[in-house]
């Protein structure tokens, strides 16, 4: 293929990409416009107020010119005293009335336009939050929370301002420029053309400026997103930063991110100031020409003083709306970009959802079964995390999962409530494939006590009762007693009303884990999964909690994932995971008798040694 052909292909490809981007942008703007128009009453009031305000504003220059002519005629006619006073008061009061009405309708325009924008922002904010709540774990695995927060603030604000700064401004500018231009040209062609000469230049420079600022604004938004991520991670890990005395490292990191945003802001100033000065110069140049030509025509008797006054007033009124052409163009561009990001989130496919015709989970025998289950995370090159996992757990049974880190234990736990869907095999509960039942009933029947003990910034009582906010105090206290937390809570000044702080920062790791266990014991699930949920608890407290867990396990399936064997030796069945497979299974005594990997781990925890550690890792 020749170089010319390659170049032509590249140009065609770029044209297709640009055309596709334009279509997406127009589609986004149309979608936002439809959202705004749903608030028909507010839209009607906003547009009606805009039309009346524009008409009243166009009346002011004409009334001003007429007042000047009337005053001049009265002076020339020798009118004095009360008659002269009346000649001055009448146009003055009329101007005052029109100006006041114009101010009232402008206020109404701004109020109703902002109301439409805020209603749309409210709807989008709820829709985004609802979508984030329903998106699967696989989505959250790949997206930083700081980016979602930025989307919910800056992007949402860009869409919110679309109605008031774009749609309403289109109507306002069309009327002001259209009516003003027609009035001036129809009154005096030469003066009208000269008076409007600044309009094309100002509109062009304003549009170019705003589009250039728009490009830098998008870049600035990305840099602010990076800045928010740095700040969020630093604040979330403030104890780690202090523990390792890493302030000297964190401060330059934040300074770099902040300086990147500052440099771009300086660049925006370099774009804005020269162009604003050029637009102002063009306006005053046109104003000077109108004064020069108008005065010459006034001396020649071709126009009246009131006519020249009307032209000058019209120009003054048009100056700001014409400058706003660029802001209007920017509003369209910003809404298109911000809207595409928001709708990109809202249109995300929810991979974990109710299947067509899904039925509520029906619990009878209470048997959980993994049948040849395999799983691979998306984006990992299809490398299987779990391979051909098969086991069965009946009501009243406790299944223990043990194995080295990264062997797939937590992943297996996340498959049971369908946080992820299996990529091979099936998981059934009482013979029902969990993919064929509704998520609401499935997750009501299953509770996973996460390894990361997350607490909300509220009271201890609210954290324990999170799964059942209307639970009675006695149930909350019994749950905390089972989790060996009740006595500690009673010792606090505010007791159960103590606020735990962000992510439970005021509690120790063991206290946070006990609180999440108490939260679980408040509920009555059919399956309970403890995912290494006692790792931060001392051995004596763990034994007491274990006794409560065994009482809890009598009428449900209990799965315990742990590294400490004292947590699971009582289990009815122990599964040893390694590299995503079950390599050993049996009771505690049976596995010790096999003298395999489990026995090596048992010996390692009782009497640590290099040889035993090697045996646990499966080395030859």
Automatic annotation (TrEMBL):
ABC transporter domain location: 368-604
From the record, give the transmembrane residue ranges: 42-60, 161-182, 272-293, 305-322
A Pfam family annotated for this chain is ABC_tran
Q: Give the top-rank taxon of the lineage listed in the UniProt record for this protein.
A: Bacteria
Q: Where in the cell is it found?
A: Cell membrane
Segments forming domain ABC transmembrane type-1: 44-334
Q: Is-annotated flag, keyword Membrane? A: yes
Classify the protein's membrane topology as the record does.
Multi-pass membrane protein
Q: What is its main location?
A: membrane
Cell membrane keyword on record: yes
- Which GO terms fall under molecular function for this chain's record? ABC-type oligopeptide transporter activity; ATP binding; ATP hydrolysis activity
Q: What keywords tag this UniProt record?
A: ATP-binding, Cell membrane, Membrane, Nucleotide-binding, Sugar transport, Transmembrane, Transmembrane helix, Transport
Q: Name one GO cellular component term.
A: plasma membrane
Family assignment?
Answer: Belongs to the ABC transporter superfamily.
Its name, as the record gives it, is ATP-binding cassette subfamily B protein
What is this organism's lineage?
Bacteria, Pseudomonadati, Pseudomonadota, Alphaproteobacteria, Hyphomicrobiales
């Amino acid at each position: 293929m020749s170089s010319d052909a390659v170049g032509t292909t590249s140009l065609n490809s770029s044209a297709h990409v640009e055309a596709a981007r334009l279509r997406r942008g127009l589609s986004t703007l149309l979608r936002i416009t439809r959202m705004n128009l749903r608030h028909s009453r507010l839209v009607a009031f906003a547009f009606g107020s805009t039309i009346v305000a524009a008409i009243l504003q166009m009346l002011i220059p004409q009334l001003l010119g007429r007042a000047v002519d009337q005053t001049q005629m009265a002076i020339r006619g020798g009118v004095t005293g009360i008659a002269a006073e009346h000649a001055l008061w009448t146009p003055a009061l009329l101007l005052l009335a029109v100006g006041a009405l114009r101010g009232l309708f402008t206020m109404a325009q701004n109020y109703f336009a902002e109301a439409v924008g805020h209603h749309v922002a409210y709807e989008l904010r709820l829709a985004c939050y609802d979508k984030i709540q329903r998106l699967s774990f696989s989505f959250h695995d790949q997206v930083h929370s700081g980016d979602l927060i930025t989307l919910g603030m800056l992007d949402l604000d860009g869409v919110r301002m679309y109605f008031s700064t774009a749609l309403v401004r289109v109507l306002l500018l069309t009327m002001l420029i259209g009516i003003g231009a027609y009035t001036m040209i129809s009154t005096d062609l030469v003066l009208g053309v000269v008076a409007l000469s600044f309009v094309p230049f100002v509109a062009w420079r304003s549009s170019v400026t705003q589009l250039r600022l728009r490009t830098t604004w998008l870049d600035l938004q990305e840099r602010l997103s990076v800045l928010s991520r740095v700040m969020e991670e630093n604040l979330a890990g403030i104890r780690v930063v202090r523990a390792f005395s890493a302030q000297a490292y964190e401060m330059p990191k934040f300074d770099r991110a902040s300086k990147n945003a500052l440099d771009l802001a300086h660049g925006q100033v370099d774009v804005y100031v020269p162009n604003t000065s050029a637009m102002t110069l063009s306006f005053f140049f046109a104003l000077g020409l109108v004064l020069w030509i108008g005065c010459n025509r006034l001396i020649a008797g071709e126009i009246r003083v009131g006519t020249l006054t009307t032209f000058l007033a019209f120009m003054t009124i048009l100056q700001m709306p014409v400058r706003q052409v660029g802001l209007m163009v920017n509003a369209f561009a910003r809404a298109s970009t911000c809207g595409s990001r928001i709708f990109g989130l809202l249109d995300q496919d929810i991979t974990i959802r109710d299947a067509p015709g899904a039925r509520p989970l029906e619990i009878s025998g209470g048997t959980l079964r993994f049948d040849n289950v395999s799983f691979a995370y998306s984006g990992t090159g299809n490398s299987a995390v779990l391979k051909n996992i098969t086991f069965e757990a009946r009501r009243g049974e406790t299944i223990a999962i043990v194995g080295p880190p990264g062997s797939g234990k937590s992943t297996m736990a996340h498959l049971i409530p369908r946080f992820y869907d299996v990529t091979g095999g099936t998981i059934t509960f009482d013979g029902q494939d969990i993919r064929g039942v509704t998520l609401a009933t499935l997750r009501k029947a299953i509770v996973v006590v996460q390894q990361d003990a997350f607490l909300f910034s509220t009271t201890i009582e609210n954290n324990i009762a999170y799964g059942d906010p209307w639970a009675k105090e006695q149930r909350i206290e019994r749950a905390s007693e089972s989790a060996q937390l009740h006595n500690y809570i009673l010792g606090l000044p505010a007791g159960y009303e103590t606020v735990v702080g962000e992510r439970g920062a005021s509690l120790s790791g063991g206290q946070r884990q006990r609180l999440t266990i108490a939260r679980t014991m408040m509920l009555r699930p059919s399956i309970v999964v403890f995912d290494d949920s006692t790792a931060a608890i001392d051995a004596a407290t763990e034994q007491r909690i274990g006794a409560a867990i065994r009482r809890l396990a009598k009428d449900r399936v209990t799965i315990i994932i742990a590294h400490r064997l004292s947590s699971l030796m009582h289990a009815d069945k122990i599964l040893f995971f390694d590299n995503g497979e079950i390599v050993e299974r049996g009771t505690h005594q049976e596995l010790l008798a096999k003298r395999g990997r489990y026995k090596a781990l048992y010996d390692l925890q009782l009497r640590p040694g290099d040889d035993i550690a090697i045996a646990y890792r499966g080395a030859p």
